[in-house]
Amino acid sequence: MAIRIEELKDKLIPMSRAIQGELNPGTDEGRNIVSKGLLLFRQNLVSNVKVRDEEASADVQDVTPVSVRLDLQFPLLSKCSCPYSGWCRHQMATFFMIYNKVARVSEWIQDWRSQESSPASDTGDKSSLDELLKKHSDSGALRKASDLLQERKTRGNTPDEWWEFFETLLQKEDLQLLERQPYLMDVIIQNIYKRFNKEAPFEREWKPLYQLFATFFLTLKVDLFLQRRDIALNREQYALFDFLLDEMEDAVEKLSVHAMPFSFDPFIAFLKEKSREMSEDPKHSSEIKAEVYRFIWYYLFKQKAWRREEVKRLEAAESQDDSFIKIALLHQYLLLEEMEKAEEMVDKIGTELVVHSEFWLVKFVLSKRYEALLLLLKAILTRLPSYIEERDHYEASSFVRWFVRKLPTEWLMERDPAFLRELLLSMLPFSYYSYTEFLLNAKSYREWVELQKYMGYSIAEMENIGLREVYKESPELALPLYYNGVIDAIEQKNRDSYRQAVRYLKKIRTIYKKLKQTDKWDAYIEYILEKYKRLRAFQEECRKGKLIDA
């Protein structure tokens, strides 16, 4: 485990304090976690420890082997593959393994134990509890166990009862944490979802349906909460919705393994009605509405009669200019394979088409809906330059990286390479590496050289991204790049750069020999030596490199 000790020490000091604050030495749970973690560490059961930037990973050989990832900056965001919820003995053992590199674990244990304080008096405890209950009485975030037992409701057997049951479960959660701890949004939602899942039906065939309902419910409720408080999410915070949608997709996949029983019909009809209510509710964010709506209509509501009925409803909607209505209608036209109407709708949508493209790109490739896919990509192409121009450099760069990853490049390369070239060209300079790879795969070496001239990279950088291949396959095209490389190296006027220039000159000589144009090489080297005849060190390096006679 190669670690820079001083850097690691700076990271572990605040992490150590956070762990000591989390684990109370006065409780059985805290003592158990620390003692069992210490035992695993001392038995050398922690292996494959790696530390990179703000993260550490390791494998711990317990009764069942587990994988651990420690977040050095936010320790409570650390993860372990064991079923324990919270800081566990495996994370503790991994921490001790790393901490042992910078300080003594025994001293850490003594320091932690010294924090144990005498238990508060019964009067003090009761007073503190009463104050906390009074403080949180309005929000319902903290209540007595006896109150919770009295209020506990059963899940029921109908979709309406399920929905009401979810409402009671959510009332016990403190969603305000999303506002107070925005950097923990995805963790907070995952923990809420785990608690919802504990109430899942015992019957195996009903579990996926419950999972679908729970994720659908949470997505809508969390979105409404964030919208009411006008909380804008950055790209990282959107991970909470990615998690819920991934769980929703997992549920649908499990449901699709077998034919759904008739008893599921009222639940599916209920979700269909809820999706309609969501689409008409202006309080929801357009982006989340579009994601959930397209997902549920793509996977669950597959009957053509339902889809045609939904089209009529959307077409009759009063707010035809609403961006969500346009996206929803386009989705339905594409699913019904009504391409003419889809094209008409595409013309009415602006650059938001680019924002919502991910779902279609992924799903239509998997389902081989190539006609719909090509229609969308051609529409996106005309909007890409404007969309990229509207963003700052960081946002534009991040978007292009994401978009290129989602592109079905292999399919496009086989079906319409010219169109793929247009797409990548429209995103320059942010698509530089992808376009470079495309040109090399297409053996378009002349265009590759022109791109390098445009970007202005050094020879050393170009050698790692294709120059060696061009030098091998079409050496004459590499000549202009090496010409520039020689001049740039000589102009730096130091020994190392002169040696670099000599290396490039040798490449040029080899190319001219392959082309059987040694006379041109003679003229070129004579010109270079004459031009820089006053640079004695350069002349000396040329003699050492046997470019001229000693």
Structure, described:
- It contains 29 helices and 4 strands.
- The chain has a 4-stranded antiparallel beta sheet with strand order 1-2-3-4, with helices on one face.
- Strand 1 and strand 2 form a beta hairpin.
- About 3% of the residues have low confidence.
Write the layout of secondary structure elements.
Elements: H1 5-22, H2 28-42, E1 46-52, E2 55-61, E3 65-71, E4 79-80, H3 89-99, H4 105-113, H5 122-135, H6 145-151, H7 159-171, H8 177-180, H9 185-197, H10 207-228, H11 239-255, H12 265-280, H13 286-299, H14 304-315, H15 323-335, H16 339-348, H17 352-355, H18 357-366, H19 370-389, H20 393-406, H21 409-415, H22 417-426, H23 432-441, H24 445-455, H25 459-473, H26 475-491, H27 495-514, H28 518-531, H29 536-544
Antiparallel strand pairs: 1-2, 2-3, 3-4
Give the rounded overall mean pLDDT.
Answer: 84
- Indicate the proportion of strand residues: under 5%
Major beta sheet summary: 4 strands, antiparallel
- Tell me the quaternary state: single chain
Stretches where pLDDT is under 50 for at least 5 consecutive residues are 117-126, 145-152
Strand order of the largest sheet: 1-2-3-4
Structural class: mainly alpha
Output the radius of gyration.
32 Å
DSSP summary: helix tally: 29
Number of strands: 4
- Helical proportion, percent range: 55-70%
Overall spatial form:
flat
